[in-house]
Specification:
This protein has ten helices and seven strands. With 243 residues, the chain is α/β, with parallel strands linked by helices. α6 runs parallel beside α10.
């Protein structure tokens, strides 16, 4: 399964080009991606070869987006993603970096692990130059790279099943009853238009609810919200909301 940046559309995002860190233990990959991004006016502020260097580079350069390989020496990409997103807070300097996981291994469990770690997307290394550029710009604008329906399938398959493993790690009590309802439906993969039709609301109102949910739960995008909805047992595998 290759993540297609066209699956989720977003706004135009900030006018300035994204600043990117590339973390991959293969020099040819780093060089190739850097050339592709530079040709589109995207600044690569650091190129590193392992997860430890990636963490340091993010702290030094404060990029908008990190292209993160999964399999690297010292610290792998998933662990580096967890450490970066737990240590760099959104209010430190505008926003936490968005992380796109890169891998040659097209395995669902890697996709789920990346989303659970807080990544905003997932690409195979044979991605086309056009899709690479589109992916960087998409996640920088605040959207997830994977469609909600794909995310839901992955979470249903890989989310913890036992109650002990599913301890609530975010306080859903911060949400209003309407926001909980929106989150339940969002976790089933509904688009804003489908949410609006189901709840008999305008799309503008739905977007406001989604924005408030992400803000209250300190989430980066809809894909991460779906992970939280399942792992907190607000929704159970099979798509049935908890009542």
């Amino acid at each position: 399964m290759t993540a297609d940046p066209g699956l989720v559309t977003g706004g135009s995002g900030p006018a300035t080009p994204p600043r990117v860190v590339i973390a991959d233990d293969q020099a040819l990959v780093r060089t190739g991606f850097s050339m592709i991004l530079a040709a589109d006016g995207i600044e690569v502020v650091a190129e590193v070869a392992d997860g430890a260097q990636a963490i340091d580079a993010v702290r030094r350069t404060r990029p908008d987006v990190v292209l993160m390989d999964i399999r690297m020496p010292e610290i792998d990409g998933l662990e580096a993603t967890r450490r970066i997103l737990s240590s760099v807070k959104p209010d430190d300097s505008g926003a936490a970096p968005r992380i796109i996981i890169l891998t040659t291994y097209d395995l669902d469990r890697y996709v789920y692990a990346a989303l659970a770690a807080g990544a905003s997307g997932f690409l195979l290394k044979d991605v086309s130059p056009e899709h690479l550029v589109a992916a960087v710009r998409l996640v920088r604008s605040g959207d997830a790279l994977l469609a909600p329906s794909i995310t839901r399938r992955l979470v249903e398959r890989f989310a913890p099943r036992d109650e002990q493993a599913a301890i609530l790690h975010r306080d859903l009590s911060a949400l209003t009853p309407r926001e909980l309802e929106v989150l339940q439906l969002l976790a089933r993969g509904l688009s804003n238009a489908e949410l609006a039709e189901t709840l008999h609301l305008s799309e503008t109102t739905v977007k406001t609810h989604v924005t408030r949910i992400l803000s209250k739960l300190d989430l980066r995008d809809r894909a991460q919200a779906i992970v939280v909805a399942y792992e907190s047992r607000l929704v159970t595998p099979g798509g049935h909301p908890q009542r």
